Amino acid sequence: MPTPSRIARPWNQPEENVFFDFLIEHVSEGGDGTNFKRATFKKAAIAIAPFRTKGPPKDYSSCQNKWGTFKKTSRIVNGIRNLSGIKWDYEKGADIGPDETVMWDDYTARNPLAKPYHNKGWPHLAKMDLLLPSSTSTTTVFHPLASQSTLADVEESDSDTPAAAAAPSSEDNTGEDSDVETPAATPASTCKRQRDPPTIPAPRKCVHTSIGATALTAMVVAMDRFTDRMAEALAAPSNAVDATPCRRTNAITAARELETWLARPQLMALIQIFQGDKAACDIYLSFLKDDELRMEWVAKQINLPSTLTPLV
Fold first, then answer.
1. What is the dihedral of CA 99, 104, 109, 112, to 10 degrees?
2. How many whole angstroms separate alpha carbon 73 and alpha carbon 168?
């Protein structure tokens, strides 16, 4: 019977997708290096729990191991993306054609973990780029010794056991992968190879802002926009001073032209209503195209009978 630390906890694609989405949402908890703490992984385990299809539930250790696996995969993929002459495709991976075969064979002979990406991409690469935006340079230059020293130790696997180290990662399989939780072990002897002194990589031509700083800047911009909109909503209209006089003048002018059936004292009574009630001005102006309704409304305002006859 396996010990608790050796229990296999297989991952499926929905779990991995939700796990990535959770880390992107909580990227600020990991700092610039996305070194997430135990508390973050505990919350991540709760977030992915509804998507489990088999095996025991994931705990913080499962999520921590999975994140370590994803970072190793990212280093392998970015090593390929930095190769001179390789145009990485998110679906086709390195997309090796006849012209690149010799170069690819030479590269994978030194970095065998890159082989699965010969013509297949990594489905989580776009999200990993959001978490680690500066993980690859925009100018790709192939440094043989540098790439060898970077990828030689990467044993891509969701298990910490030596037997699983050479197998392709779960992201390269269509089915579910297995995450076996084990304490940190000493790397296998195959990883302790003699390396040539690494060359100094060419300086990167692109300076990336940390994801935390980018998120903070976006938040400040959003708050500024919100403040501006609130100020616009609460501020009085620029024409607030002239609005009421204009409506009052229009109403009085229309009454003098249309209400010829009123006697002068009745017309003056209506004008006095307009002078003290801007709502009455608005209502009256809305009736200009309906003579019968307008006359009934005017009669009610100045206390005339509902049935009207024109006054001479």
1. -150
2. 10
Q: What integer pLDDT is reported at residue 69 of this predicted model?
A: 93
pLDDT for residue 196 is more than 70: no
Q: For residue 285, what are its two tokens? A: 């102006």
Return the HEC string of the chain: CCCHHHCECCECHHHHHHHHHHHHHCHHHHCCCCCCCHHHHHHHHHHHHHHCCCCCCCCHHHHHHHHHHHHHHHHHHHHHHCCCCCCCECCCECCCCHHHHHHHHHHHHHCHHHHHHCCCCCCCHHHHHHHCCCCCCCCCCCCHHHHHHHHCCCCCCCECCHHHCCCCCHHHCCCCECCECCCCCCCCHHHCCCCCCCCCCCCCCCCCCCHHHHHHHHHHHHHHHHHHHHHHHHCCCCCHHHHHHHHHHHHHHHHHHHCCCCCHHHHHHHHHHHHHCHHHHHHHHHCCCCHHHHHHHHHHHCCCCCCCCCCC
Tokens 């780029």, residue?
Answer: 129
> Per the confidence metrics, is the pTM higher than 0.85?
no
Contact 135, 128 (CB under 8 A): yes
Cα–Cα distances in angstroms (integers) from residue 48 to residues 43, 45, 57, 191, in the given order: 9, 5, 9, 33
pLDDT score at 308 = 53
Q: What is the mean pLDDT of residues 112-123?
A: 91
Q: How far is CA 233 from CA 42, 142, 224, 230, in A?
A: 43, 56, 14, 5
- Identify the band that residue 151 occupies on the pLDDT scale cut at 50, 70 and 90: very low
Amino acid identity, residue 14? P
Report which residue type is found at 164. A
